Amino acid sequence: ARIIKTHPFTKSILIEVKKELEKKTSFLIENKEVLIWKSKSSDLFLIPQNSIALKKARLENSNEPIKLSWNGHVREIAVGYELGSWTKGLEILKNGKHREISELFRERHIPLPVREFLPILFKENKASIILFSLWDDRLKDFIGD
Q1: In angstroms, rounded to a whole number, what is the distance separating the alpha carbons of residues 97 and 3?
Q2: For residues 141 and 132, what is the distance between their CA atoms, to the nearest angstrom?
Q3: 106: part of which helix (H) or strand (E)?
């Protein structure tokens, strides 16, 4: 808790986390300061409620090139793209096939609370690029057709 600058966890929260871990299922536990999330096959994530990952991405286009800012990262984006975010049922076209973005999130272990904030670039009102690298620089961005 000290590392992520929150108050110590209560015994009841730690007991609840232990029980959930023993079930080996996905879970989300919240308190006033931290979101505790784990999927079946991912690491355990402790995300402070005030994390910059839980804030909407911003575009800074006061001058060229347009810059996108999220989760402490800044990325230049090409003209013609619009900034958006995930909504249930959203798909992206890749190699002529539609992929559900929620499935791509699951494959990459993107925590559920972060998904609605992770920036997606749209072109002509269609999801075109999912900027996974802004969450974890070990992940490649997913670029659609």
Answers
A1: 43
A2: 5
A3: helix 101-107
**pLDDT by residue (tens digit) across 13-29?**
999 999 999 999 999 99
What is the rounded CA–CA span in Å between residue 120 and residue 130? 5
Q: What pLDDT score does 64 carry?
A: 75
Contacts 24+ apart (CB under 8 A), 72-78: 73/133, 73/134, 75/131, 75/134, 77/121
pLDDT digits (tens, 9 = 90+) for 30-57: 999 999 999 999 999 999 999 999 999 9
One-letter identity of residue 107: E
Q: What is the model's pTM?
A: 0.87
Count CB neighbours of 30 within 10 A: 13
User: 45, 37 in Cβ contact below 8 A?
Assistant: yes
